[in-house]
Amino acid sequence: MADANVSHLGQINLGGDQKALFLKVFAGEVLATFQQVNVFLGKTTVRTISHGKSAQFPATGIAQTAYHTPGEEILGDEIAHAERVIHIDDLLTSSAFISNWEEAMNHYDVRSTYSNEIGFQLAKVMDENIAKVGVLAAREAATITGQAGGTSLVNGAYGTDSAVLASGLFDAAQTLDEKNVPDNDRYAYFLPAQYYLLAQNTTVN
Asked: Residue 162 CB: number of other CB atoms within 10 A?
């Protein structure tokens, strides 16, 4: 009796690895969950680094102004330059091994559950890392000498008093205005307790 011709579900164009398509399905489910859960990624500048261990972000100072006196030569003012170098973290992974034999005996689909959990954890850790960068940036000195650096507003009542926390948001907005930070892309993030405390304050929209 001749062997049957098997249509391998994971094979691409009837050739090569018989499991090539399976990983992509699983990865797609992970990516879908990641995109649903992740909060900060869409609110940050994303740069793809294909080679190397770091990325350079040039920083440019502000221009100067002066009233011109007729007859005087305009020599030009110096504009300061600096840079921020962002180093790549180690590769973040989340994985699970599933035995085909145990999966065959199982009475429910476990892969979708695992993929959701993996996507959720990857999104959670990325959000945590971005939030930490935001805190560190608020504590940083100026990149350009003589220009604005980060600012930390500290008040012990931010975690217990919604009115004080709401006032802190206006203080933060004022600080950003004074440092000429564009107001078209500003966000604030809170611990859960602070968020729900602020949500009960009717004076903040």
From this structure: 19
CA-CA distance, 83 to 58, in Å (whole number)? Answer: 4
Q: Locate tokens 């504590």: which residue?
A: 139
- On the 0-12 / 13-18 / 19+ scale of CB atoms within 10 A, 30 is buried
Q: Does residue 13 contact residue 22 with C-beta atoms inside 8 Å?
A: no
Cα-Cα-Cα-Cα dihedral sign, residues 7, 9, 13, 16: negative
pLDDT digits (tens, 9 = 90+) for 32-56: 888 888 988 888 888 888 888 888 8
| Residue 149 token pair | 């650096």
> What's this model's pTM, rounded to 2 decimal places?
0.73
Q: Give the Cα separation of 140 and 146 in Å (integer).
A: 13
Contacting residues for 108 by C-beta, under 8 A, at least 6 apart: none
pLDDT tens digits for 190-202?
Answer: 899 999 999 988 7
Backbone torsions φ then ψ of 5, nearest 5 degrees: -85, 110
Q: What is the pLDDT of residue 25?
A: 62
The Cα–Cα gap between 203 and 205 comes to: 7
pLDDT-derived band at 120 (thresholds 50, 70, 90) equals very high
Which has the closest alpha carbon to 164: 189, 131, 205, 194? 194
